[in-house]
């Protein structure tokens, strides 16, 4: 059989014990229950979580899919199928989402957030703010619809700063609508989003930092890190029956190997080299 795909373009799929998966970010409680209901209704897992091995450990850090992992854990699955990636692959990039916050009044947002104990606000300008975020001297940066820029600092060790970052994000998520976007350009955001009262920009974390946070038990807020994964596995549509089957890990991975071979033989696997924009998520 002639294939048009090169071998290293295929994602590495594997069943792993669910207790060996360590998230680096919080699961979103608002999304967990609807996700569980959807999994039970559809009876398939569409997209596998993406994980990277933790050096010198049998465990993996979850780069994307904390909600799917938590839903599978609550459903009692002993194993979960994941896509395993090499965190040192130069094609893999770690970026950060921007949060667009929508509401009635920018003053309401700033009054709400500034009331958080331990948060320090500091007026800034764009280049200085970018530098401070890059050096982790600030936990976030806020931009007003009028273009005002404020650095948000938090004193203390890693745990305290991450806790305050979680408190910050949880506070505006509970009071206002928010959206994730890949741009931090004010004019683009004002063009496409309504009633913008603030824009939150976050540091870009390095892979070593993400692994260390996961190992130490620190959790970033959901929706901050954005992993750009080469050859991302999507729409595997795997039956939940195999996930919850009383088979050994070895038996499930043997089944997975045969499943993959059959997909190849049926020419059901397609690799897209170009960036893809999906309009029906």
Task: Explain the overall architecture.
The protein has 2 domains: 7-92 and 228-265, Conserved hypothetical protein from pyrococcus furiosus pfu- 392566-001, ParB domain (Alpha-Beta Complex), CATH 3.90.1530; 98-201, no CATH class. 35% of the residues lie in helices and 24% in strands. It has 9 helices and 15 strands. The strands form 4 sheets. The protein has a 6-stranded antiparallel sheet, sandwiched between helices. It has a 5-stranded mixed sheet with strand order 1-6-4-5-2. A two-stranded antiparallel sheet has the order 3-15. β10 (140-143) and β11 (149-154) form a beta hairpin. Residues 1-6 have low confidence and may be disordered.
Strand content is 15-25%
In the CATH hierarchy, what is the class of the largest domain?
A: Alpha Beta
Any guess at the CATH architecture of the largest domain?
Answer: Alpha-Beta Complex
Largest sheet: 6 strands, antiparallel
Low-confidence stretches: 1-6
Net shape: elongated
Structural class: alpha+beta
CATH topology title of the largest domain: Conserved hypothetical protein from pyrococcus furiosus pfu- 392566-001, ParB domain
Tell me the domain tally. Answer: 2
Distance between the termini: 34 Å
